[in-house]
Amino acid sequence: MSRTGATNYCCECAASQSRCSADICPCVAARRMCDEHCESARYRGDCLNQAICKCSCEVDPAKPAKNACTKSERCDCLRIKEGCSKLCACKQICKNKEPLKKILKVTKPSQGCTCAKSKKQCVKKECPCRGVYEFCSSNCKCCGDCTNGPSKFHVPKHVQNCFLEHKHESSGLIVTLIGEDYIYRGDFFHESKNEPHVEEQLVAAIYDLISKYKVDLYEIVIFVSKSPCFHQDCDPKCEVIDECKSNKACAKLLGLLLSKVRKELSKVDVKMTVKFLYPHLNRGDLYTKQGILCMLQAGIKVEPLLMKDWSAIMDWSPNIDHKGEYLKTWNDHNLDKAVAQSQSFINECRRALGLSMKFWVAEIHEIVKNTILHYSEIRVKCGELNDALKQLDLTATPHKIRSTPSKRRSFIDMHELRDKLLMRSSTDHSKKNGSNMSVASEDAHAQAMVASFCGRSFDDSETNEIAQRIRRATANINVEIETLLEFLTHKGAVA
């Protein structure tokens, strides 16, 4: 396609969720990739006809070119099942230059499985519902009341243990696939060097899903026990990443997966979130940060795994040793330290990319929680004072009280009201002494507010705004209280 001075990009496709993904795009129709100007000219990352990756497989002049790009562990393009492009180091002079033939996608069967009823029904991979990455439903013979039922999702104990204790090799991953009227959850486990990493298992499963079936995903949420690796587990260990023969870089692989999903589904706004508990510190923190940077640059939302999500993992695999004692278990395993360390690494990487700092665990969260609880309690006490004031007859002066029966009645009512208030406060005091229930449990609204902030992150500007508003509110309340107390003190002195 010829370009003019006004047209400095390769095609005229309108900006949309699925731009450059169908034959309406002249580049796609001509079976060629859009060039880099296609998206950079519009300052958007929405062209779906770009090369997903650029492999670093160099063609050895002493060997036939067909031997290049033949090993998936070495060639990123082959690994993600994409044909090499001219941007690759191999310059398309390789065995992987031809794009793979696309399989005609089919709609998932809706009739459900016919698994026989038993104690372990639908537990094996032979269950058709599991085969198409679906929970069993009322359309199945089991009626969804099985081990693959949406309400009976279960995480094996060995996967759960990965989120309790950080061991060198083992790791666990739980993925939630979210789409239009679709949700599915699965788990993966890695134990020894000979096994694929949990991220590699996940990539294989999701590719199997999106290449065979018509799905409408819009988010992939990943809980993983330790941060995805970036050449920490290469065997042999690589000194120069570009010359690495093992190429164990799961952080990069997840970024490639996100691009692949967007391209396969023709949806540029598919999101991916990775939440990890422990930082993967094999070979030091430099490789850990490189892995986080790699994911952030690929458009993946990276966060530490907080207690709210971690508690869900515990719920999915009930253990009689600590059932319901999640806070104690969290503290016993010193997981606050792991989350704080993970947050520190993430923020360092965000700062390096010019992104705002985010705080999931910090002093501001404790301040916000105490503000909600304390001010809710103050509001309740102020409400009681206002109720008392409403019942006060302001026309009842001492002289009129002595002379008017109706006013005397008002004076008696005040005494009764005082006794009631004293009785209520003594009852409330005994209740508080008799239990460890917090103010939040007594005030449903405050409890809901505190819960809404659980797992919420604040960046620098949000932290400053919250702090300023709390300071202003506290100062205003203090001024009003001081003014009132001074007035009452003066009245008391005059009396």
Q: Given the helix and strand composition, which structural class is it?
A: alpha/beta
**Gyration radius, to the nearest Å?**
31 Å
What is the correct CATH architecture of the domain at 145-361?
3-Layer(aba) Sandwich
Distance between the termini: 96 Å
Mean pLDDT: 79
| Major β-sheet profile | 5 strands, mixed
Kindly report the CATH topology of the domain at 145-361: Cytidine Deaminase, domain 2
CATH class of the domain at 145-361: Alpha Beta
CATH superfamily of the domain at 145-361, by name, is Cytidine Deaminase, domain 2
Listing every helix as H and every strand as E from the N terminus to the C terminus, the arrangement reads HHHHHEEHEHEHEHHHEHHHHHEH
Shape: globular
Number of strands: 7
DSSP strand (E) fraction? 5-15%
Strand order of the largest sheet: 2-1-3-4-5
InterPro entries: AID (IPR013158), CRC (IPR005172), Tesmin/TSO1-like_CXC (IPR033467)
Subcellular location: Nucleus
Family: Belongs to the lin-54 family.
Keywords: Nucleus
Give me a quick take on this structure.
By secondary structure, the protein is α/β, with parallel strands linked by helices.
Write up what this structure looks like.
- InterPro entries: AID, CRC, Tesmin/TSO1-like_CXC.
- This is CRC domain-containing protein.
- Its main location: nucleus.
- It is found in: Nucleus.
- The protein is an alpha/beta fold and 495 residues long.
- Among the domains are: 145-361, Cytidine Deaminase, domain 2; 385-427; 451-495.
- It is 43% helix and 9% strand.
- The chain has 17 helices and 7 strands.
- It has helices at 26-29, 37-40, 76-79, 128-131, 157-162, 198-212, 250-265, 285-297, 307-316, 326-332, 335-352, 363-390, 398-403, 405-434, 439-442, 444-452, 460-494; strands at residues 171-179, 182-190, 217-226, 271-278, 301-304, 358-359, 458-459.
- The chain has a 5-stranded mixed β-sheet. A two-stranded antiparallel ribbon has the order 6-7.
- Helix 7 (250-265) packs parallel to helix 8 and helix 8 packs across helix 11.
- The radius of gyration is 31 Å and the shape is globular.
